[in-house]
TrEMBL record:
Residues 211-352 form the RDD domain. The lineage of its organism: Bacteria, Bacillati, Actinomycetota, Actinomycetes, Micrococcales. It is found in: Membrane. It comes from the Bacteria. This is VanZ family protein.
Length: 367
């Protein structure tokens, strides 16, 4: 029983960690594609993430302790005869009778493989809004990838295969996905489908509310932090592999400066006049007359607004010797508080940066 449930625990933990790290990015993509967020779509995406980790944990774990752990005669020999499980069914029925067969590992191993792949077919129809044929193809492709990964010892990561690659698993798994795609049309699974919406690019413009502005800032913060984390992680990896070692000033000042420039300032100067997060929320910076803001105003708004705040935040929390960061932190907190207060109570919900630069936001589809 423990063998059945611990992979589920791994799936839940893995899915939770993945959603914690990538959840905001998924919401940004959803908003960019559909023009708004949907609880049903978000819940189904979360379920798909947990299911993906579950598929991995049940088919790949546990991993061997060493590369050669399973390099012994008679271990993990591939089963390449289609329909062998039917012979096993017959043998079990003869040996134990129908009652014994109904509770046998031989039967339940096949049933579990079918059940494991049924959600893939359901998600293909409901989440991807596709059809039964797509569910069948996805089930076959996913199962084939798993069996080949097992057969090759995770593509050479291990010297020998550590799990049995079985052609019957390919057949049974694909059947499970097909069954899932068929039953996905039952009304009980309708809740997995998000609202039917046209491409957000062709949707009518909507009002720019405070909540929408805040959501764009959240997208921007997540994108900047994610890119910065990826860049610094790559730098650390190169250093460990014998590459050039960057000094503290590069890591704590210049890398954040470059990242913020590419995620905030340069996109704000490009046509569309919006940062990456604002573009996901379909926002565009304008002057006081509702026209696209000039490059100088856009840059000033980005430097004084959330782009500058993000840059100061990243360097003030990482700098040590380069500047008196306690003072920088204090000034940053004061400026954020004043800007937030102005944003909340100003009639046009502009922050200090918007007031100083005489700029505002509109839905970019309004032009």
């Amino acid at each position: 029983m423990q063998t059945m449930f611990w992979p589920a625990t791994i799936a839940i933990l893995g899915g939770a960690l993945f959603l914690g790290a990538a959840g905001i990015f998924l919401l940004a993509v959803q908003y960019r594609r559909h023009g708004r967020l949907s609880w049903r779509r978000t819940i189904t995406t979360s379920m798909a993430a947990v299911y993906g980790f579950g598929l991995f944990s049940y088919t790949m774990l546990p991993l061997p302790e060493t590369r050669d752990a399973y390099c012994r005669p008679g271990v993990a020999i591939p089963q390449l005869v289609p329909g062998r499980f039917l012979d096993d069914f017959k043998a079990t029925i003869v040996e134990r009778g129908l009652t014994g067969f109904a509770t046998s590992f031989t039967l339940w191993q096949v049933l579990f493989n079918i059940i494991l792949f049924m959600p893939l077919g359901i998600l293909a129809v409901r989440w991807l809004r596709s059809n039964i044929f797509t569910g069948l193809i996805l089930g076959f492709a996913a199962s084939l990838a798993i069996e080949l990964t097992q057969y090759t010892g995770i593509w050479g990561l291990y010297t020998c295969a550590y799990r049995v690659a079985d052609v019957d698993d390919l057949i049974v798994n694909t059947t499970g996905a097909l069954m899932g795609a068929i039953i996905a049309y039952l009304p009980i699974f309708k809740f997995l489908s998000g609202p039917v919406e046209a491409d957000a690019a062709t949707a009518p413009a909507r009002a720019v509310t405070r909540s929408r502005r805040i959501l764009a800032n959240i997208f921007d913060a997540a994108i900047t932090t994610g890119v910065l984390f990826g860049v610094t992680g790559a730098v650390e990896l190169l250093e460990r592999l014998g590459g050039p070692v960057l000094d503290a000033q590069w890591k704590n000042f210049w890398i954040p400066l470059i990242v913020v420039a590419f995620t905030f300032w340069l996109p704000s100067l490009a046509p569309g006049r919006a940062s990456l997060g604002q573009r996901c929320a379909w926002l565009m910076l304008t002057d006081g007359q509702g026209n696209p803001a000039s490059a100088s105003r856009a840059l000033l708004r980005s430097l004084l607004g959330f782009g500058g705040i993000n840059f100061l935040f990243h360097i003030s929390t990482n700098l040590g010797e380069i500047t008196a960061y306690p003072l920088l932190n204090m000034l940053l907190v004061i400026y954020i508080a004043l800007s937030a207060f102005y944003f909340i109570f100003e009639a046009n919900h502009r922050g200090l940066a918007g007031k100083i630069s005489s700029t505002g936001f509109i839905d970019r589809r309004a032009l």
